[in-house]
Structures are given as structure tokens and as C-alpha cells.
Design goal:
It is a single chain. The chain is an alpha/beta fold. Helix content is about 30%, strand content about 10%. The chain is built from 13 helices and 15 strands. It has a nine-stranded parallel β-sheet with strand order 5-4-3-2-1-13-12-9-6. Helix 3 links the parallel strand 2 and strand 3. The chain is globular and about 70 Å long.
């Protein structure tokens, strides 16, 4: 039975389908978050779990099945989506035995005896991104099928559902209207096979929707359409009104499903959020505006024009990750609701009973209050300067530097000091990490300026193992030299 048919549908049918979908997946109603771990100095799992509970977060989505994290989630009352990285899809697709071993180790073990409330297995992570050039197209569905078979064999298939988190680029519209939506032609066949498989196994479709990327990718994209403040002129799609890109994007997927006979397939928004740095549109103000706008929509239970009712969603993400690849953009390391040390970035009401603010991590210790900066006497014409800055940024995190970023207004000295300090902190304030030849010094005076914060690294259980101190006399290519010169000078 279709959930929607043409321009009219029965509200009774909608209620029944929504309730039935909720029963199928057994999910709690609270907002979820993505817990990524690509950090040089990650918070301990126990601190993160406490932070989740302190903020009333009842669902978490992981990108792997780290045993330390799963142990910390035991008896926490938090529902869990464990993940299978893309680089494992080939082996799981080609071996039922490998899938059974993975489920036994990463699901059955924790569910049966460990008290971890695992509800989903995410098979891959955005495997059909167009930038992957089809790398995972042949292995995603077989891996999905083998994991499902393994869950069935283990007796967990009614409790734990499979899904594939997909980027919103798997579907598109030939116009600005969602009703013209369909799956991307080059993957249409495999998408229909996956959708049918999910439907047959009463499993949800998971999609990652990023209005920020729409704004980042298109300089002509209307800024206000990315938010939830009622952009005008709204798009009229056969009587349905769209005044924000999230609704339009989401319902383009609904139309793609409906046109192929799967209009009532449950949808999970696996990732949604806004970064706070690394781009002119990535800042605290926009992030707070977007995430609070989404949370207000989420808490209202309004849904979208094609799917009225509660939305199942996971915010992206919990904490900043300074070890993520910046190939998509410098903003990639700044999606967190919290900074790397677990401190909240801005006020956000998540709809819990714990007030309107985020609760930061407790018991987090920082390193000493000292920073590595450019010597006042340093010669800016020193031929070691540009290579040193480039080296520091290649091996640390300089994504807060550049046009429109939080540190975009620093002068030349400030930019160099920021690069040196980032390298120094990531290497646990080792003396050898502040020995840029004749250029650097350690200071106990905070060089932060306004919104540009020179961070102090946190202490971790494995402090000292994160550093990547190497020779500062490495030969850099002329391109990197040119880039660094143009960026900072």
C-alpha cells in the first residue's frame, strides 16, 4: 500500500503507517547523534557516554564497531547503530562466513551478554558517492545481504535491522520540484535492488542530508533557503509548499521511492548538521540557527509535506574531529556540537528535560597553559619560514585559517603562530615540536584574539602517541610552497 498517491492522501493511512514504521524499527523518539572518532586526541568513551546521557541523547550512530565504545555503552539505555566501513564491503560481500564472524564479534557478543542496545547495522557509509566512481557499487548489496543472513542465523534479525547510509546525491530532480525526483540514472538499478531488499526485510532507508553543502557548492544558492525561517518565494509543487531545502531534498527521496512502489518505506535521516569553521558559511551563528531550526522542526513532529509526522534523525556530529580528511573542504573537521574537548559551542535545545543548553563533558584535563608561537625577532624573509608553516599545517590542523574562518582576520605573525601552535598541541606540547629553526618559541601568554582561539590540547589515556614529529627540513614541492605563501602572506 502506498503512503502517498498523487496530491491527496488519507491522514488515517499516514498515522497507521507512521506507527507501524515505528514498531518495525523499535526506535525511541529522542534525537540521535553521530559519534565519530577521527580525532588525534579523542575523549574517552566513558566521558562521551556520560555526555550523551547528560544531554538526554537516546540514540547514537557509530561508523564502526569499536569494542571500547560498545563496552562504554553497556546498560546505558542508549540505542546504537554500529557501522561497517566501506573498506570492509568487499570481504563481507564475498564471504558469508566473514559476515557471520563480523556479526558474532560486533553484534551478538554485545547484545546477548554485554547489554548493548544495538538496533541497526549500517553497511557502508555513503558508498555510492559520485566521487567514488563506482568503487563500491558491486559490493554494497551483496554485503548487505550477507549481513542480513548472518543476523537471521544468529536470531537477531527481528531486533537488529540493516541499512545503508546513503548521501543525498543518490537521487535528483530534473527541476526544483521534489515531484520530479528519481534515483540517479547510473545507479538506478542497484538502488532499486537495495530498496526492495530493505523493504522485504522491514528495514529503513538511511539518507544523509546537508543543506550546508548546497550552499557551499553553489555560490548562487539562496542562503535563507538553507534554513528553517520560511524562505520566500517558496516552491509550489502541485499544492505542496517548500520554503527550505531540507524538506525539498527529503521529499525528492520520498518521490523517488514512491514512483518505484516503495512509498511507505521508513526513512532515517542519518546525518544532518552544520559546521562551525573552515568556510565563510561555516560559523557558530549559522550552525546554531540551522541546528536549532531543525530541532524545533523535529520536536514539533511536523515532518515534511510528503511525510507529515515525526522524523527519525541523527545530528552530525557530536564532537569535532581534527583527524578527518579535508578533501571535501576545510569545514570537515568542525561539524561538532562540541569542541574536541567536549565543551559546547553554542546554546542548543535538544528537547530533553535538561534545559535549553548543552551540557559539556566533565573531568576533561587539558595540558599546561603554554603555546608555541612565532618569535617576535623572527625574520619573515627567512627561507625556512614558508616550508615550516607548510609542514606544521600538513601535520596538524590549520583549517581555522583562511577567508571567512574564525581566524581569518589574523595578521601574518598570527597565522604563523597559529600553525606552529597547532602542531605543538597535537604533539602533546613536546619541546621538540616547537623547534622550528630560529622561528619559534614557547610562551605562557595566550595568543588568542577575539573569536580565534589558540587551543590547548587535552590529556588522553594515550598522550604522547598522537604526535607526528619529524624532520623540519623536509623538502616540500613548489606547489605547497606557493600555496602556503599565498595563504598566509
Amino acid at each position: 500500500m502506498e503512503l502517498m498517491g498523487g496530491a491527496k492522501f488519507s491522514s488515517c493511512v499516514v498515522v497507521v503507517v507512521v506507527l507501524f514504521s515505528a514498531l518495525l524499527v523499535g526506535s525511541v523518539s529522542g534525537i540521535g547523534v553521530n559519534w565519530g572518532t577521527q580525532s588525534t586526541h579523542p575523549l574517552s568513551p566513558s566521558k562521551v557516554v556520560k555526555m550523551l546521557k547528560d544531554n538526554g541523547i537516546q540514540k547514537v550512530k557509530l561508523f564502526d564497531a569499536d569494542p571500547g565504545i560498545l563496552d562504554a555503552l553497556k546498560k546505558s539505555g542508549i540505542q546504537v547503530m554500529v557501522g561497517i566501513p566501506n573498506d570492509m564491503l568487499y570481504s563481507l560481500a564475498n564471504s558469508v562466513e566473514a559476515a557471520e564472524k563480523w556479526v558474532s564479534k560486533n553484534v551478538s557478543k554485545h547484545v546477548s551478554s554485554g547489554g548493548v542496545d544495538i538496533r541497526y547495522v549500517a553497511v557502508g557509509n555513503e558508498p555510492f558517492l559520485s566521487t567514488y566512481n563506482g568503487t563500491y557499487e558491486a559490493t554494497t548489496l551483496p554485503a548487505l545481504q550477507n549481513i542480513q543472513a548472518a543476523l537471521t542465523k544468529s536470531g537477531l534479525s527481528n531486533r537488529v535491522k540493516v541499512t545503508v547510509p546513503l548521501n543525498a546525491d543518490v537521487y535528483q530532480s530534473s527541476s526544483e520540484k521534489p515531484s520530479d525526483g528519481g534515483f540517479r540514472p547510473d545507479i538506478n538499478n542497484v538502488m532499486l535492488q537495495i530498496v526492495k531488499f530493505l523493504n522485504d526485510n522491514r528495514a529503513p532507508f538511511t539518507v544523509n542530508i546537508y543543506p550546508f553543502i548546497s550552499l557551499y557548492s553553489d555560490p548562487n544558492f539562496p542562503v535563507d533557503y538553507a534554513f528553517f525561517n520560511g524562505y520566500q518565494p517558496a516552491i509550489n509543487d502541485n499544492g505542496r509548499t517548500y520554503d527550505n531545502v531540507f524538506d525539498a531534498n527529503h521529499d525528492t527521496l520520498v518521490w523517488a521511492l514512491q514512483k518505484n512502489g516503495f512509498g511507505n518505506l521508513p526513512i532515517i535521516v542519518g546525518e544532518i548538521g552544520w559546521p562551525t569553521d573552515g568556510d565563510r558559511n561555516a560559523n557558530l551563528q549559522y550552525a546554531q540557527r540551522f541546528n536549532q531550526g531543525f530541532m524545533s522542526r523535529y520536536m514539533s513532529g511536523k515532518g515534511t509535506p510528503m511525510r507529515p509526522g515525526p522524523i527519525d534523525a541523527y545530528l552530525f556530529s557530536l564532537v569535532d574531529e581534527d583527524g578527518k580528511s579535508i578533501q571535501p573542504g576545510n569545514f570537515e573537521r568542525h561539524w561538532g556540537l562540541f569542541y574536541f574537548d567536549g565543551q559546547p559551542k553554542y546554546q542548543l535545545n535538544l528537547g530533553s528535560t535538561r534545559g535549553n543548553g548543552l551540557v559539556g563533558a566533565s573531568g576533561v584535563d587539558h595540558l599546561a597553559k603554554k603555546w608555541c608561537v612565532l618569535k617576535p625577532s623572527a625574520n619573515l624573509n627567512d627561507n625556512q619560514l614558508a616550508p615550516s608553516v607548510a609542514y606544521a599545517c600538513q601535520n596538524a590542523d590549520c583549517t581555522s585559517l583562511g577567508y571567512g574562518t574564525s581566524c581569518g582576520n589574523l595578521d601574518v605573525h598570527g597565522n604563523i603562530s597559529f600553525a606552529f601552535n597547532s602542531y605543538y598541541q597535537i604533539n602533546d606540547q613536546m619541546d621538540s615540536a616547537c623547534k622550528f629553526p630560529g622561528l619559534s618559541m614557547i610562551t605562557d601568554k595566550d595568543p588568542s584574539v577575539g573569536d580565534c582561539k589558540f587551543r590547548i590540547m587535552i590529556q588522553t589515556d594515550s598522550a604522547g602517541l598522537h604526535g607526528r614529529v619529524g624532520s623540519l627540513t623536509i623538502v616540500l614541492c613548489f606547489f605547497v610552497f606557493w600555496l602556503s605563501c599565498n595563504l598566509w602572506f
